[in-house]
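Lab notes, practical 5.
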Amino acid sequence: MLALGPKALVVKHGEYGATAFFGPTVFGSDAAHHPFRAPALPLTEVVDPTGAGDSFAGGFFGYIASQPELTPAVFKRAMFYGGVMGSFTVERFGLSDCNT
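Output from the prediction step:
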């Protein structure tokens, strides 16, 4: 995939977390040779996985957007934010427990 042009690729593994792969021009040459793996949070029960990927993307990009510059540390932390947001989503069914 990286040969087709993207500078980075994030592959989500559902309950197993996500892995980021980097092209040779992103964060220097070391990042290109070392994918970064962010494990998922272990949950006692998964009720509804609908929307978990969207929640991951929201947490991931939301964190990146809140930072003044994109660094390796910011990118890695964003992957954990994405994982946390995805974990919140699967703990309940839709909006069934919302009080609003």
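Observations recorded by the TA: Residues 5 and 25 are 11 Å apart (CA to CA). The chain is about 40% helix and 15% strand.
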